Structure formats: C-alpha cells, structure tokens
C-alpha cells in the first residue's frame, strides 16, 4: 500500500521533533541522569536480587502493579514482590516521565519497563487460563478458536495498548458527548513522549538479552542504550520490523495485510481495555440499554460473524430483553455487550479503527525517513 493511501486525516507524533515537557511534568520529574542514578541506588539496595528479569519486573511494578498487569498482561509475575519503599523508589514513583534534552523534553520510562517486562513473559492476551492455552485437547482447541485473543501480550503492553486506550476513549467521548475531536484524544493518550518510548522499548528488547538471570543491571542497559546505541541506529525502522512491518525504502510494502491483521488485534485489545474501565465511566440507564438492544439487533442482521459468535449475540440479546422488562440495569451485562460489539467489529466506523491504524503507519513511515536522513547527515 503506497504511503499516500494511508489516512492523512489523523496524525501521530513519534517524537522526531522533540517532546516538550509541560510545566507540570517538569515540576514532578527527574532529569534522565538523575533518574538512572536513583535506579542504581535501588539496585545496590537489592543486591540479593541479582536477576535482571526479576529486577525489570520490580521496576515495572513501581508504576503498573494492578491485578490486570500481573495476572493478564504480564502473566507469571504476580508472586514477584515490588521493591520495598525507600527514598529512591519514592523519587521514581513521583512521575512516569523523565526529562531529556537539558530538561526540556518529556519521556515515559514506565512504558520502557512495561515493554521490557512483557518481552520476558510473552504469549497471547486472552481470558483463557494458561492450562487451556497449553492443552491440545479438542475442547481446548475449540475454546482457543472462539475466545477473544490478542496475538501477543508484548504488543498489548506497548504500542497496541496505547492505541486501544485511544480507541476506548473515542467510544467514551462519543457516549458522553464530550465533544473532543479524535485528534485531541490521540494527542492526549498517544503523546509523542509515550510513542517514542514504545519505539525504544521494542528496540531495547531487540538489542539486549533481558531474560538472562545474570545480565547487566537494568540501569546500565538503559544508560548504554541512550548514550551509545540509539544515536547510531534508526530505532523507528527496528520498531517497525519487530511489529511485523516491512519497509521498502519509502513505504511499508505489506501495509495492507498488516492493517487487516492488526484491526482485529486492536478491536480485541480495546474490548479488554473497556471491560476494565467502563464501570467507572458510565451511567447505566435506560438510554444505554435501549441503544445496546438496537445495536445487538443491528449486528445480528448485518454483521458477518461466525455461528458461535451469532449464538453468543443471541444469548446477549435475550438477557438484555429480560433486563429491559424487569427495569433492572445489569451493569456487567451492559459492559459485556459493549465489549462484544467492539470485538466483533460492529463499532469499527464509530471508533475509526482503520483510520487510526493507517495514521499510525503514516506517522511511523515519516519518522523512519526522518531518522534515516539524520543518520546520513
């Protein structure tokens, strides 16, 4: 797909021109060298844990230590305790961001830790338990065919997770009539200092051995990357390769097939995101119930879905009618209905799934060309 066929109506900032820090970020954040120094203090305080993979998990847990992160996004880390509270951990916890470029630009270190940790615990993101994923029985194979699944958790912990947060907020904005533009939501949840961290995180995973028990300290890996490795390569091109894109010099030669594949992943990841967050966002009332009943009926009549998915939607329709007749607003049922319709693609147009992914590719292509030109200069 040629570059000029990618959607130009939305824009992604990949941080090529810097990511100016707001006054609020400057007030709460450490300069990158000070941040790395605090990391070294924490590493020295935890000499007994001379295990790079475990230390990455512990650094990630400074920022992301919820049930969803430890049991779903990065499975197998639930029993690893976070760092004991200290002055150094508190210094890091004050802000996800660090300051670069003489304290003028922002950069999200929490994203780095999430991606690095997910790379050591990768696998599909699905509600199915691990024993079902590992099983070869006919029942397990059937469940794996019908369950909503994102291809891998590494994507969901990084760039795809950020896009799902953007799409989820498209939905919330539409329902609550907040009148934000889609570009405003992209700029908020996909800011350049987050996007470049996703790029660097994948590049670090590609460049360093992070799963070895006796690898380098995490602070040393990051210091080496930012001081020595990153200036000599094009991280955008490496990032593109790690997420399955093929760059042909001026454009992605497999953009069309990549978009088709990632549209499904993004829908599914968005459904998971909203399942966790919708309960705190909505009023569950007759208006929403009426909307969902109409949308489920429309989906059954017009959506091209598999028989098992049609059966699931019919069951949801029956339960919504029971809820309507009893005037009992079943919050869990309504959340499941919204997430199921998103997963099946019913809200693709409303949520701008294809234009968003297309704009992401367009921004990434531009960033690759920019970085190539900079290396040649």
Helix and strand composition category: mainly alpha
Q: Oligomer, anyone?
A: single chain
Largest sheet: 3 strands, mixed
Overall 3D geometry?
globular
The number of helical elements comes to: 19
Would you summarize the structure shown here?
This protein is mainly alpha-helical and 377 residues long. The protein is built from 19 helices and three strands.
List the topology elements.
Blueprint: H1 23-28, E1 30-31, H2 32-45, H3 52-61, H4 67-73, H5 87-93, E2 97-100, E3 105-108, H6 109-120, H7 130-134, H8 138-146, H9 153-157, H10 159-176, H11 182-189, H12 192-207, H13 218-229, H14 235-242, H15 255-277, H16 286-302, H17 307-326, H18 331-344, H19 353-376
Parallel strand pairs: 1-2
Antiparallel strand pairs: 2-3
Helix pairs in contact: 2-5, 2-13, 3-6, 6-12, 10-11, 10-15, 12-14, 14-19, 15-18, 15-19, 16-17, 16-18, 17-18
Would you mind describing this structure in some detail?
- By secondary structure, this protein is mostly helical.
- It has a domain at 14-166 and 183-258.
- Helices cover 62% and strands 3% of the residues.
- The protein has a three-stranded mixed sheet.
- Helix 12 packs across helix 14 (235-242) and helix 16 runs antiparallel to helix 17.
- It is globular, with a radius of gyration of 22 Å.
- It starts with 22 loop residues before the first helix and ends with a helix.
- 41% of the residues are buried.
- The model has no long low-confidence stretch (mean pLDDT 93).
């Amino acid at each position: 797909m040629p570059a000029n066929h990618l959607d130009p109506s939305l824009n992604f900032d990949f941080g090529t021109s810097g990511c100016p820090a707001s006054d609020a970020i400057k007030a709460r954040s450490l300069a990158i060298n000070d941040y790395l120094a605090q990391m070294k203090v924490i590493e020295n305080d935890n000499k007994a844990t001379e295990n790079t993979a475990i230390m990455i998990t512990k650094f990630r847990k400074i920022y992301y230590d919820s049930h969803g992160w430890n049991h779903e996004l990065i499975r197998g880390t639930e029993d690893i305790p976070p760092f004991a509270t200290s002055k150094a951990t508190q210094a890091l916890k004050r802000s996800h961001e660090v300051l670069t470029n003489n304290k003028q630009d922002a950069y999200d270190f929490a994203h780095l830790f999430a991606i690095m940790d997910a790379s050591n615990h990768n696998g599909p993101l699905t509600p199915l338990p691990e024993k079902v994923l590992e099983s070869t029985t006919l029942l397990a194979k059937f469940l794996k065919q019908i369950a909503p699944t994102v291809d891998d958790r590494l994507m969901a912990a990084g760039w795809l997770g950020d896009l799902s947060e953007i799409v989820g907020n498209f939905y919330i904005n539409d329902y609550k009539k907040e009148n934000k533009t889609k570009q405003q939501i992209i700029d908020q949840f996909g800011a350049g200092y987050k996007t470049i961290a996703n790029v660097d995180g994948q590049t670090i995973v590609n460049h360093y051995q992070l799963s070895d028990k006796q690898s380098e300290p995490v602070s040393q890996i990051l210091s080496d990357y930012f001081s020595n490795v990153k200036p000599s390569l094009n991280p955008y091109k490496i990032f593109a390769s790690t997420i399955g894109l093929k760059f042909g010099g001026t454009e992605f030669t497999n953009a069309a097939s990549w978009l088709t594949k990632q549209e499904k992943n993004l829908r599914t990841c968005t459904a998971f995101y909203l399942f966790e967050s919708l309960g705190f966002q909505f009023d569950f009332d007759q208006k929403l119930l009426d909307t969902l009943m109409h949308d489920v009926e429309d989906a059954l009549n017009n959506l091209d879905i598999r028989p098992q998915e049609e059966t699931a939607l019919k069951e949801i329709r029956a339960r919504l009618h029971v809820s309507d007749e009893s005037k009992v607003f079943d919050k869990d049922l309504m959340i499941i209905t919204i997430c199921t319709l998103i997963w099946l693609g019913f809200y693709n147009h409303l949520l701008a799934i294809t234009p968003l992914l297309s704009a992401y590719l367009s921004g990434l292509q531009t960033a690759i060309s920019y970085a190539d030109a900079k290396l040649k200069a």
